[in-house]
Structure to design on (734 residues):
């Protein structure tokens, strides 16, 4: 099948079939990652620019590794080191980069819509690595790949997404992806962090958190930023962990099977989740990182080579 | 003896919207039978002939001043005053020193109240830490510790975003929010209602709009968040209109009034001086009429008293320096009777709804506020025909700050039964 998208700006632009293609390719790469040596030459000679205007470790390193494993040359730009600090406008910075004649640009920015904006005038493939509160498509794809590899049947799958839905691009992208594959979605958490308009994601809001967990087979916890508490969305981290954090007594089973626990990372141990649960057998959190690398390889290859 | 039989009373059944002539049998703190002609040789008998027998009165706005200001009132003196006033349950406001804003303070106070064991003491926790209006308290942890409502009473929640978030957040825990409505910028150092009296006496005024404007804001917030919101001690005609309009839009807000706002107006300050200094201030006759009509039309669903005891020192001297508040727990019921029953605004059945059934419903006290089998045996017996003079020097409350000294009032509680125990006996 010929790949028709030049960019990966969001999960929203992909059909269910297209998601499945990326998952299949990602699955192959995930298997291949177990081997050594790993270096491939499939994208040898292509240049990738990582342009991160927001702090990131795991996503930036993951894209860098994915490019290098496929044989690409990778250049990293971070906001602190860029000419933006010298007063250059965002548009000029990006246009300057465009003249560098790279092939693909991975961008993270705090403003929703920036990847779409630059895709309208930059000549190379744009991959959204997180834009504001809108989308984080490779995170959604890696989450879906993790579920797929765990043997989850998407058509009989209910995922409870718990926590800061309001500010989460991860929640948006994952929900859209899950819906396209036929899964059910439940949202829960402090009502201050469950936004009005959430029905657009076609999930169900269920309170309290215990009930949301009871109805799900995958519990997906979102990272809680300390500044949300300082902004008054919930009273204290103590209260959050008590009422909204996943604890030993909440990780109940589903027909004898442990509920799967996922988290986009990095985890605030003792806040979103009891520390003891992070490494449990039912936790897929570490596997999500490996799947992230594999899915980013799949995305780079698919965009650049066209399917 | 665990059994108690109340004979020959007119029994008020607010949950069924009717009264019946019947006896009430109580066994081990629970109502077990309500019907005419009950006889039980093992039960202690109270003769309630000529009296009304209804579910115990619940006062959702009292200040017992503990911890920190026990010289004004404490849990023991406040509980005694409640019993004498015919109240079986009270809800204490959190503006103590320190405020009730932590699970530790709640646990301590509930444990003290259990030791005293006279009335059911319920606690309101603060909305904001330290009542400072800046950061939300741990609503869920406070509920777990035993708080049943939230309020920054004594202060208005000025920060709209904080209140908006609180209204949204507290729904998760089904915690009702009780609001003291007063725009502090408009109120400034206001002491009395804006108008002729304030001007004549040279007192700084506290305009009605200070209350009305914040009520309007919070009705909009309640409408948006669908939170369980209650406006306490309403004082203006406009407040009633605003609430009524929003109730008409389906907003489930409730409100209460105090007896002094129904019986006194700002001119009363000329007669009673510092003893009539309250917040919100006493308004004028148009407001009194509007509040009464609001009760009659069911806009105002709860009667509370804002029992605010102070020491003599706090109330004496310079009017501007005197504390706000009236000690009224022991006389609130006959005061209400004077304002509402004598004036023909409501009947005794409605009275009981406003002072027992509705407060219980609002606070989620499922075993209280109704007279039926299986409910807690919290019962108030009231003689509608008794006359007494108010004698402030006989108050059991530590607070003697009360303008009603010497008033002749009719319709006093004569017995108070809490959890099946007779705490005040008919004399």
């Amino acid at each position: 099948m010929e790949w028709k998208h030049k960019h990966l700006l969001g999960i929203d632009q992909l059909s269910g079939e297209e998601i499945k293609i990326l998952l299949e390719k990602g699955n192959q790469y995930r298997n291949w990652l177990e081997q050594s040596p790993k270096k491939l030459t499939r994208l040898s000679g292509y240049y990738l620019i990582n342009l991160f205007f927001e702090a990131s470790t795991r996503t930036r390193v993951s894209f860098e590794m994915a490019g290098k494993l496929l044989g690409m040359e990778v250049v990293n730009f971070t906001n602190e080191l860029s000419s933006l600090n010298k007063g250059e406008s965002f548009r000029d910075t990006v246009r300057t980069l465009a003249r560098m004649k790279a092939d693909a640009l991975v961008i993270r920015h705090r403003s929703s819509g920036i990847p779409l904006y630059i895709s309208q005038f930059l000549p190379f493939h744009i991959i959204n690595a997180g834009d504001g509160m809108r989308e984080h498509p490779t995170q959604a794809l890696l989450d879906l790949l993790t579920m797929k590899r765990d043997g989850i049947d998407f058509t009989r799958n209910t995922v409870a997404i718990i926590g800061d839905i309001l500010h989460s691009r991860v929640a948006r992208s994952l929900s859209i992806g899950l819906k396209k594959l036929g899964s059910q979605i439940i949202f829960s958490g402090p009502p201050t962090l469950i936004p009005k308009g959430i029905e657009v994601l076609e999930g169900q809001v269920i309170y309290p958190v215990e009930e949301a967990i009871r109805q799900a087979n995958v519990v997906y916890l979102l990272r809680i930023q300390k500044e949300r508490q300082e902004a008054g969305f919930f009273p204290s981290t103590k209260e959050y962990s008590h009422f909204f954090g996943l604890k030993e007594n909440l990780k109940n089973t589903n027909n004898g099977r442990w509920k799967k626990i996922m988290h986009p990372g990095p985890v605030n141990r003792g806040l979103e989740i009891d520390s003891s649960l992070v490494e449990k057998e039912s936790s897929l959190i570490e596997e999500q990182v490996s799947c992230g690398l594999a899915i980013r390889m799949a995305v780079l290859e698919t965009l650049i080579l066209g399917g | 003896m665990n059994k108690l039989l109340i004979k020959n009373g007119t029994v008020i059944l607010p949950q069924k919207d009717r009264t019946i002539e019947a006896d009430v049998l109580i066994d081990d703190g629970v109502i077990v039978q309500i019907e005419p002609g009950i006889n039980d040789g093992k039960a202690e008998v109270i003769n309630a002939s000529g009296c009304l027998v209804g579910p115990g009165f619940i006062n959702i706005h009292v200040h017992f001043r503990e911890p920190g200001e026990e010289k004004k009132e404490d849990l023991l003196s406040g509980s005694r005053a409640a019993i004498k006033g015919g109240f079986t349950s009270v809800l204490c406001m959190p503006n103590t020193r320190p405020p009730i804003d932590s699970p530790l303070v709640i646990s301590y106070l509930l444990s003290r109240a259990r030791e005293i064991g006279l009335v059911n003491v319920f606690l309101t926790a603060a909305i904001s830490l330290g009542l400072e209006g800046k950061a939300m308290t741990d609503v869920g942890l406070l509920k777990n510790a035993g708080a049943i409502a939230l309020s920054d009473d004594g202060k208005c929640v000025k920060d709209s975003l904080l209140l908006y978030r609180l209204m949204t957040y507290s729904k998760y825990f089904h915690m009702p929010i009780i609001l003291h409505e007063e725009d502090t910028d408009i109120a400034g150092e206001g002491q009395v209602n804006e108008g002729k009296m304030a001007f004549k006496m040279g007192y700084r005024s506290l305009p009605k709009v200070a209350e009305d404007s914040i009520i309007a804001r919070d009705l909009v917030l309640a409408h948006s968040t669908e939170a369980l919101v209650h406006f306490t001690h309403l004082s203006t005609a406009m407040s009633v209109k605003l609430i009524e309009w929003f109730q008409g839009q389906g907003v489930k807000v409730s409100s209460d009034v105090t007896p002094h706002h129904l019986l006194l107006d700002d001119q009363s300050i000329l007669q009673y001086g510092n003893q009539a200094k309250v917040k919100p201030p006493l308004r004028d006759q148009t407001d009194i009429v509007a509040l009464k009509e609001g009760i009659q039309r069911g806009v105002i669903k709860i009667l509370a008293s804002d029992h605010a005891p102070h020491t003599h020192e706090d109330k004496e001297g310079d009017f501007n320096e005197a504390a706000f508040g009236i000690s009224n727990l022991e006389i609130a019921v006959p005061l209400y009777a004077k304002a509402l029953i004598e004036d023909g605004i409501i009947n005794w059945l409605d009275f009981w709804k406003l002072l027992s059934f509705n407060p219980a419903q609002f606070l989620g006290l499922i075993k209280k506020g109704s007279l039926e089998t299986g409910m807690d045996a919290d019962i108030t017996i009231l003689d509608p025909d008794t006359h007494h003079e108010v004698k402030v020097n006989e108050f059991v409350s530590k607070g003697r700050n009360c303008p009603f000294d010497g008033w002749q009032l009719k319709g006093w509680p004569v017995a108070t039964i809490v959890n099946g125990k007779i705490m005040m006996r008919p004399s």
Q: What stands out?
A: Chain B touches chain A at residues 135-141, 161-162, 165, 168-169, 171-172 (CB under 8 Å). Residues 208-225 of chain B form the longest helix (18 residues). Chain B has a mean pLDDT of 97. The CA atoms of residues 301 and 354 of chain B lie 6 Å apart.
